[in-house]
Amino acid sequence: MTIGAPILEVEVLVIGLFVLMVEAFFERIDKRTLAFAAIFGLAAVLAASFFLAPAPTDVATTGFWSFYTADLLAIFFKRFALVTTILVLVMMVDYAPVVRQSVHGTTHQSGLGEFFALPIFTCVGLMWMASAIDFVMIFVSLELVTMSFYVLVSFTRRNPATLEAGVKYLILSALSTGFLVYGITWIFGVTGETNLARVTAVLADPALESGPALFGMVLVLVALGFKIAAVPFQMWVPDVYQGAPTPVTAFLSVGSKAAGFVVLLRVLQPFFMMPQMVKALTIIALLTLLYGNLAALPQTNLKRLLAYSSIAHAGYLLIGVVSFAGEAVAYYLVAYLLMTLLSFAVLVVVANQTGDNIEDFSGLAKRSPFLAFAMLVAMASLAGVPFTAGFLGKFYIFDAALRQHQTTLVVVGVITVACGFYYYLKVVRAMYWDGSSIDAPVPVSRLSRVTMTAMMVAIVVLGVYPQPILNALK
Amino acid sequence: MLRDYVPLLLHIGVAIGFAVSALLMSVLLGKAGRRTRVKDTAYECGMVPQGETQPRFSVKFYLVAMLFILFDLEIVFMYPWAVVYKEMIVESKLVLWSMLSFVTILMIGYVYALKKGALDWKR
Hints:
The structure holds two protein chains of two kinds. Chain A is an all-alpha fold.
């Protein structure tokens, strides 16, 4: 039995609406059941994605569905979005006590249902975005993602830091959306088309004046740079990441970034003929690598450290984009998903007991050997220790860059990796070498224990056997 | 191509020039009146002003206004839909189902707002 690709998004949307309706009509039930139901539903959709009808080989450029594609890249990122959302929901269940404390409401469970429903709507947006091949569709799905993030980022609004994060994210995100729309109008003004394939066809004409289109593309690049947190559009990242509820930070750093990159890969195709674009992206990649890694060095708060680390990883991913290596970028994103979500999952559990500073992790190896080991695997992978997915991801990226003779990028990339070893291993040192005043063991729920183990296994397995991911795009 | 923009530049120049000269003239020719406490108070239709100039409003106003704009704007989508409906329904039923699903999603949003007491003024 096979199904069409748009059914997947509809299914996820129905799950979201279902959760919202149950939240509205049944006040008495334990709201965490909603999260479990959503996780189960999303897992079913993920399973269904393996029974898709094969996509037609010719890209649709006319007709009603000319905004939508179900090629391998789209299917790959739909699964990516689903896995991310499932893992974030698992984290949110652990985070539920904090939400209860920091949301005003009539009952002690107020706001929990929405906290579980909103990521599902974000997931729908991410899935639409993976398939979008029309500027209008890209814009609409991007808005769906951003709107639900506005609410999620400022969800625990009794906390002043969260409020600050929410306002900053709202204003800067709205500004970047403005850049996106303005860029799209310029491109439309030159080519008269919004469909990416037709834009490519029009731009291939040598008689066409390419200046205005390039200007429009630079504006689009600014908006996408904001989404993927590339320098110089990264100002919002540290404060928003630190202030937002931790599972939302994890979602923001994986989901939002991956969506930015999939749109970047699609949008840049008409424009890679132009050498100016490659030059601009190379400079952005260099700046991102240097800024992200150097600014991460003095951090003492783990959430803030991960924010800068997320900027740094955007730099490595951009090397892949500049080197036209779609597969390497996809593999790196999967590795990034696993190691980032694993570190945030540990952070949520530990922060419930102590706090989210690095010193709160002191002596974690004694308090909870399991959590300390999970964090060790995540940090080793983020730093790029061999036999982890993070190492192989960086290896593929640098390999692709060398093939394109991007020596400067590789040299700077390797130097900044060394830089990364220092700040990631700082966390490991705190966990294994520093003593702690607290001896109480950290409680871990069974669901998170299973999820964390699965992520650890995936990091190590993909680090030595990457073929499943590489084959998924062939 | 750039020459087409000359009238536009001229227009902008005239607009700025007019505004600047009007302000300048009023400063040069006009007389500055005496300032008193009563003159500096907020103008309220000739009545004696009460309370602050910028009082705090209940957030409920914003909530109701937002909900109104939301559901009001959705109607706009239905006009072009209704115009092309007759021609498109002949080709396929897609046009009907897409609007029905759109309205269903709206309905769910409305039910949610109602159940959460967003339209309940006393809460």
